[in-house]
Design goal:
Two copies of one chain form a homodimer. With 148 residues, the first copy, chain A, is an alpha+beta fold. Chain A has two domains: 1-90, Arc Repressor Mutant, subunit A; 93-148, Dna Ligase, domain 1. The first copy, chain A, is 34% helix and 26% strand. Chain A contains four helices and six strands. The first copy, chain A, has helices spanning 3-15, 22-33, 40-51, 55-67; strands spanning 38-39, 71-75, 81-85, 96-101, 107-114, 126-137. Chain A has a three-stranded antiparallel beta sheet with strand order 1-3-2. Chain A has a three-stranded mixed beta sheet with strand order 5-4-6, with no helix packed on it. In chain A, helix 1 (3-15) crosses helix 2 (22-33) and helix 3 packs across helix 4 (55-67). The termini of chain A are far apart. Strand 6 (126-137) of chain A pairs antiparallel with strand 6 (126-137) of chain B, so a sheet runs across the interface. Bound molecules: manganese (II) ion (2 copies) and zinc ion (2 copies). Chain A binds a DNA duplex (30 and 30 nucleotides) through residues 18-21, 23-24, 39-41, 53-57, 59-61, 64, 79-81.
Amino acid sequence: MTPTFHDRAESLVQRTGARVTRQRIEVLAILLSARRALTHHEVEDRANRSLGIDRVTVYRVLEWLTAHELAHKIAGEDRVWRFNAAGDEGGRSHAHAHFKCNDCGDVICLDEVRAARDIRLPSGYRSQAVELTVKGLCAECVPARKHS
Amino acid sequence: MTPTFHDRAESLVQRTGARVTRQRIEVLAILLSARRALTHHEVEDRANRSLGIDRVTVYRVLEWLTAHELAHKIAGEDRVWRFNAAGDEGGRSHAHAHFKCNDCGDVICLDEVRAARDIRLPSGYRSQAVELTVKGLCAECVPARKHS
DNA sequence: GGCCTTAATGCAACAGAGTTGCGTGCAAGC
DNA sequence: GCTTGCACGCAACTCTGTTGCATTAAGGCC
Ligand SMILES: [Mn+2]
Ligand SMILES: [Mn+2]
Ligand SMILES: [Zn+2]
Ligand SMILES: [Zn+2]
């Protein structure tokens, strides 16, 4: 939400060649400023409170950002999409792994971890992408062990 | 749905020590007879049409089967759970990978494929499970290439 | 077999995430 | 500035799954 994120967002939206709207800039800035993947609800909270952006618009903008590879979305077990601004990898396919905390639900990208691509499939099957998700406890949710 | 599946289902339910109900047997038999993971809707269709089992009961039975490790469930991108009878691996943790067809949505277990467990996480993070999903096209959905 | 206890079922109402339809507004091209 | 059509806002909707509660039936006991 600092000017920096807003400016980066604006230039990224401009680069697509499509319409540069306040809503697209703002939602992308929110994603850029987050260090973890945000649910629609979290984005809406911030976008609606500060700028009155409608929840349906948030859904549509998130989808638009994903389609234009300015963001990517992650399916969770809680049946909620989480969105992350695309990293500096630019538009390249979303090939990295993810971590999801079993306690607080936070999701982060493990940008350096890639899934093996050479997986044996039944005959006739064709692989297009491999998704790897590590589940566990994030640093905040790991119980303290200092005095145990 | 053949007697064999029904009988196997009945003995598996009995083995848990909990109540052996028609609904539990029938739903498990349906899962056992399927070669791919079934959505709640698919199970309900078969269970409701043939035996009039209520949809809420189907939800509860599927959850119960999962809790007792007679089935396991897979989260999909379409916000729909898919259920599979647990393989002969018995109650052992659901450690294998899955394949999901991007075209028809079918999900199958890749029983022999396991995800690497030694993944580097940010400091303080703890891993509890690793999920691996291959996406692509199943044999039925791969476009025919014979005459190309 | 019949009785009792309690877990499981059936039904209706509810909840949350996401979608659709349509009238209005505003970005961008001229 | 004026026009055009994409995007927005709002309301109504769909779909998957959940909860509350009265009723049924599994299984232990005699
Ligand atoms: Mn990611
Ligand atoms: Mn499986
Ligand atoms: Zn956490
Ligand atoms: Zn397929």
